[in-house]
Specification:
Layout (H helix, E strand, L loop, with lengths): L5 H11 L10 H11 L3 H6 L5 H21 L4 H12 L6 H16 L5 H23 L2
Helix pairs in contact: 1-7, 2-4, 2-6, 4-7, 5-7, 6-7
The structure holds protoporphyrin IX containing FE.
């Protein structure tokens, strides 16, 4: 399938390689992501009792579901479950902006070819999935 966002695809491949499942060599990306995300006081408080090693593994898997939304243009059952989990955790949807900011910051640090257009390409690719999460979290 040819996708309409070549800058995102190229960056994703530089960061994670060409495999669908993300291997252990990609853990460093997600650990760095949480370093940034947890800079927010509110986020740090929410994760106070969380095993961050497990959390990294869960986020790695959920990344695939976000990207899947972008590829097939509809949510899968796992993304629907995740939106419900976050709703029941009473996470304010505004924190999704911080989530995306932390992600793009991580991309810009770890993808040596990342430029402003690449950052925009990441925002564009993840926006369908994040918007879906936002609606699920606010139950619109
Ligand atoms: C698109 C954005 C996000 C994705 C893909 C994501 C992904 C995940 C995943 C996969 C889990 C594990 C849930 C489970 O399987 O039961 C989780 C739990 C959680 N997420 Fe998110 N998340 C996102 C946004 C956020 C935001 C904005 C916050 C705000 C702080 C947040 C806070 C949490 C917390 C507190 C947990 C529970 C941790 C625990 O079990 O102790 N997430 N998230």
């Amino acid at each position: 399938m040819s996708l309409p966002n070549p800058l995102f695809e190229a960056s994703y491949e530089r960061l994670f390689g060409g495999n669908v499942a993300l291997g252990p060599e990609t853990d460093a990306f997600f650990e760095r992501f949480y370093d940034h995300f947890l800079q927010h006081e509110e986020v740090a408080r929410l994760f106070e009792r969380t095993d961050m090693h497990k959390q990294v593994q869960m986020l790695k898997r959920s990344m695939l579901h976000l990207v899947s939304f972008y590829v097939i243009d509809e949510p899968n059952a796992e993304l629907a479950r995740l939106a419900a989990v976050h709703r029941s955790l009473r996470i304010g949807p505004a924190l999704l902006d911080s989530w995306l900011e932390a992600l793009v910051q991580t991309v810009s640090e770890l993808d040596p070819q990342c430029d402003e257009r690449t950052k925009l390409a990441w925002c564009w690719a993840l926006t369908p999935g994040i918007t879906y999460m936002r609606l699920g979290m606010t139950k619109l």
